[in-house]
Each structure stands twice: as C-alpha cells, then as structure tokens.
Amino acid sequence: MSHPLHVAILWHMHQPDYLDPRTGEYALPWVRLHAVKDYLRMAELQAQYPQVHATVNFVPSLLAQIEAYAEGAAQDRALKLSTQTAWSREDKAYILSLFFCVNEHKVMARSARYLELKARRDATRGDVDAFSDADYLDLIALFNLAWMDSLNLAQDPQFQAISHKGAGYTPEDIRLILAKQREVIASIIPAYKALAAQGQVELTTSPYYHPILPLLISTDSARVAMPGIALPSVALAAPEDAREQLARAVQAHAARFGKKPAGLWPSEGAVGAAVVPLIAEAGFAWFASDEAILARSLGVRIERDGAGHVKNPSILYQPYWVDGGSRPVAAVFRDHALSDRIGFVYQSMNPQAAVDDMIYRLHVIRERLEPDGLPYLVPIILDGENAWEYYEQNGNPFLKTLYQRLGDDPLLKPVTVREYLRKYPPRARIDRLFTGSWINGNLDTWIGEEKHNRAWAWLAQTRQRLMDWQAAHPDAPAQLLGDAWERIYQAEGSDWFWWYSSRNRSPMQAEFDRLYRARLLDVYRILGEAPPRDLAELDAAWGRPDNAIPFIQSAASGWPETWAWDRSLTLVPLAASQGAAQRAYVPVRRLRLHRDEQSLHLRLETYEPMENPNVIVDIWPTGDGTGAPWTAHLAGETSAEAGVRVRRGTHDLYLSIPLGAAGIGRSASIGLRVALVQKDGEKCWVPSEAPAALVLDSIQA
User: Please, which residues have CB within 8 angstroms of residue 88's CB and are 6 or more apart in sequence?
Assistant: First the structure.
C-alpha cells in the first residue's frame, strides 16, 4: 500500500450510574477515583503529542457524575468517611472492606505502610479493633493517594510532599488530598473540550445510561445470534426508550462540549438492523462496533494466521455504509485482537517491547493490504480506564512510548474517525447489520441466565405498570412522571445485567443488585403503590461464599435437572473477564459445577461446537491445591476413570464424578482445575492461573 496506514484509537470512558435513589448519594466511589486516576491524565498525556489524534468516548451519565463531583454536589460513602476523624464499628468495617481495593502488585506494593495494613487486615480477618485511629487515617490517605495518577501529583510540590510522607497522615493531609481530587475532577471536561477545539481529539458519545440498544428495542433480539437462548418470562420491547436514550445523549454532549457528536459508540458495541435507523434519526454520522459483527453481517470469516495477523485485511480495515432508513450511516469495526493486546496483553510486558509489538503488527497490516491507491483504517477501540491499574505506573510509560512512535512513524497516521471519514468515505456497503455485541458477537453477557432474565422481567413489568398508571392519571404532575421515567431509563443501563452474568465476578455484586432493584422500587414509591414481593426481597444467594459449590439434588437418573445449572457455581477463564473488562474471545465460555450426595457435576461450555472434546480434570482433596491431584482425562465421550459419566452436547460437555472416586469423600474443601485441550495442543485452563479453592456446600440451593 502506498499510503500510510491510518490508525484510529478510541478510548471509551464509562462507569455505572452509582446514585442511590434512597439517599441521594453515590453508593460506590469509582467515578471519583477513576476521574482522579485516568480521565484528566489521559487528556494531559495526549496533549503532549499534538501529532497524535484520537477519539474519546464519554458516556453522558458518567459526565453528569463527574460534574456533580466537580461542583461539590456529589457525595459517596468512602468520601464521607474520608472526611471524618471518628468512625463507628460499621464505618470501620466498611473502610477495611473497601479501602484496600487497589492493585496490590502494581500500586499497593509501592507503599510499605499500605502493605503492612493489608497484611494486618488479612491476618485478623478484618477485626476493626486491630487498628488504631492513626491506622485508619493512614489507610484513608493511602487509599485516596493510590487512586491518583503520578502525573497530577508531580505537578504540585506541596502535594508531592504529602504523597511521599508514607505514614503518619493527619486530617489536614487528607483534607488537602480530597481538595486536590476535586481540583483534578473540575479540570476534566475543560481539558477535553480544549483538545477537541484544537482538532486533536474527536469526542463521541454513547446512549445516555449505557443501555444495550438491541435488547432495549426487543429482548427477542438476543435470538438472532443465539436462537436457543432462554428469554425473560415477560418480554421488553421499548424502541421509544432507545430513541430517548440516544436523543438525551446528543443533548447532554452538546451542552457540555458545545457541539453535537458526529460519532456513537453504542453501549458494548451492541448493534443490529433495528438500531441503525435510530442512530440515523439521532443525527450521527458514524458508529462503531466489533469485527465479529462485520463478519456475521457479510457472511465471511475474519481469518488470522498463527501470529494473529489478519489474512483478509481489506475486509476489516475499511468503513462501510449501513442502511439507516432515512439515510445511510458510516460504520467502522474494531480489530479486537489489537484492542485486546492493549487491554490484556501488554500490561505484563516491558513498555518498549509492547509498543514494538504493536508497531510491528500495524506494519504487517499495511504490507498485506492491497495496493489499490486507497488508504485503509485500523480501528482500535477499548476501555480507557480499567486496564491501566494492571500496568506499571498506571500505563504512562506505555502510552508515552506508543504516542511517540505513532507520531514519528511516516508509515502510520493516527487519526480521529471523523477526520478519516471526511477524506475517505465508505466505498462498501452492508445490506443488513447483524445483531450482537463486541463480546463473542452475541448478547448473552446481558441476557439468557436466570438472574438476567428475572431482572429483564422486572424492568418490563415496572415499565408497563408506569405506562398503565400514566394512562389512568392524565393530569399527573409532570415532575412526578419525569422522576418515575428517569428511574426506568437508569434501570435500562447495561451494567446491572453485566453483573448478573455468571461470567463476571465482583465482591460488589450484591450492591449492584440492590442498586438495580432500588431504581425499580422507586418507581412504585413515586406512584404510591406496593412493589412486587420478589422485587423487594433481596436475593439471599448473594450471601453464599463466592467459592461455594452449591448442593442441588439431582433427578432420579443421577443427572442434574436443566434448571440446576443456572444455580451452579460458575468459573471462567481469566482472559474472558477481568471484573469490569472482558476480552473479545476465548474458546471456553464457562465452567459450571454443583454437587449432590454422591457426585460432583460439571458442565464445560464452549463457544465453538465440540467435535471431539479433549478435556483434563484435576481435583485436589484440599482447597490449597497442594500435592498430587486426582486426574481424569476425557477423549470424546469416554473416560478411563471408574464411575465417571460423560455426556456431550453441541457446545457443552457434562461430567458426573463420584465424590469417592475423586478422593473427595466428605472433604469440606477441594482444589479444582479443568482444561480444554485445543487442536494445536494449547490448554485453555479454568481457572487460568492456579487451581480454584472451593468449598462444598451442604445446604440445598
């Protein structure tokens, strides 16, 4: 190719809407903490490399929360406790549970005092009396400092002295830390507005509360990619809400940045044929999704060689026109392999070596493209906040090196999506856009499991009740109806359904469940009605330990009932989920397991059909995974181990292992690890890095 290869990096900034309707406060502090760690730092760092243009996507509900913190109107419990000098026992327990939530190896390890406090917390199992008031002050200071980026700290000599203090922090020190945080947060929106005015950054948006647009239009849309997926007992079909979420996004973006956005990152890259007309109607010139959607839309495979290089690059690295009804809309599709390398792979590499790898891969793409005289575009789209805590120094050395190399390389041209499309509009067309997201090309991260579907049914029922009430009360105050609909729009956000997925684990899942229900419960409160009992009663299952293998009685045949798998413990490969982040593809979807009186039941699920499965199961009779494991090696549908029963579906392998045969007997805990052996001999282990330490639940689930 004679032209330089155009590279469009899009950083997506998103946090859930943490506002608690009951208290008017933010239930969790992550907007504030990511604001002082990532958002301003990303703008200031890019400003140092004016030749590097990029796209930054802000979810409007995140911007609203940033503004509230900047104005001093936002309060979260961690912030409130940080301003106190005396705490109740409940407060102290909360501090000990939350204020160690930083990356231990990349962040906490920089402070001997922080490590000392964590070791004491772990050794005493969170005994609040094991810490003095001075300890709590140090912990509060260190936690708030740990979430602040070093670039911001280095610019303020007074603040640098506080950060280097290490121990013996005073209430005045903490007051200065929190004041600095507010100063940083207040600078975020002006910094991006300035970069956009200079043309270095294109600012784009997502639907206001980050809903999954195809599912909001119709929950039945999940069956486009997965015809057999289980759907909610009460269907939701709210295209008017999808339209409202987009219209609000445009309005909010224009109010903050002075102009309407040209580009849209649909929440989680989730799109479909029914979505595009709404995108066109809202006035967007372009949107982005994932290569999996492009492949399914065109009916082709995006093929890669053994090194991960795309073998048919001209298909992926160009924009497309997509029919939007009233007018076509341009679409670009992310290279999920390159995006995942920044999100997951480069964090464990030396920054120079990581950037060398990225630049080399971009050069390979350029060399393989057809010499047709037209420039191509490589979209790299990923989370702009959650990856950096896994990098050294918050990713600053990597980003500086990457921007320097991109700006200096005459064969590469870093651009915004809009500036590329203005010069080189699409020359190809997609007749019908496939329905799915950037994760595995489908929607099963947000629908299909028992907890998912129950939540969707609650949303559909509550929304319908609001519509019925509104029709019966035509003279109802506009403010009352506005408040009720606001709760519905908030409940449509993707994050609630993300955390209902068995693939995503977090110690905060019970809190996300409560916040989701709180939005729907508030609708009934506003209407003056009693909510459904099952909505009001929090799920007791959140109280079960995360590592408990539930006891579920099997059918008379000895095989589990179909419903039992939805109540099973779920393990996923590390690469598939990092809490708030998720990689685009791994061969194993998940491993589900539960027990009955006689057996341990496992269900290994894969994304591709299993023609001749080759699986290894290792079980240790103790949770620490020491010593030699009992091992079962399964080829096809047979196992040489006595008593092990195997059954295979298209994408599922079921194993029933007698507790006695595996040497478990009546053990209270076990270690377990399962591998799917791929055709090239590579093993995809679940869990990925070490055996899972699991406890055997004796309570009927």
Answer: none
Task: Render pLDDT for 407-452 as a digit per residue (tens, 0 to 9).
Answer: 999 999 999 999 999 999 999 999 999 999 999 999 999 999 999 9
Which residues of the chain have a pLDDT value below 70?
1, 539-546, 574-585, 623-625, 636-640, 642, 665-668, 698-701
Class of domain 450-543: mainly alpha
Residue ranges per structural domain of the chain: 5-19+35-61+189-430, 71-186, 450-543, 548-700
* Positive or negative torsion for Cα 271, 275, 279, 282: negative
| Crossing angle between the packed helical segments 40-47 and 188-197, to the nearest 10 degrees | 30
Write down the CATH number for the domain with range 548-700. Answer: 2.60.40.1190
d(CA 75, CA 68): 9
Classified by CATH at the fold level, domain 5-19+35-61+189-430 comes out as 7-stranded beta/alpha barrel (3.20.110)
Alpha helices (runs of H) in 14-156, residue ranges in sequence order? 30-34, 40-47, 60-70, 77-82, 89-98, 112-123, 133-146, 150-154
Number of neighbouring beta carbons within 10 Å of residue 663? 14
Sign, CA torsion 677/681/684/685: positive
The string of pLDDT tens digits covering residues 633-691 is 888 666 667 678 898 888 889 999 988 877 776 556 788 999 998 877 778 888 877 78
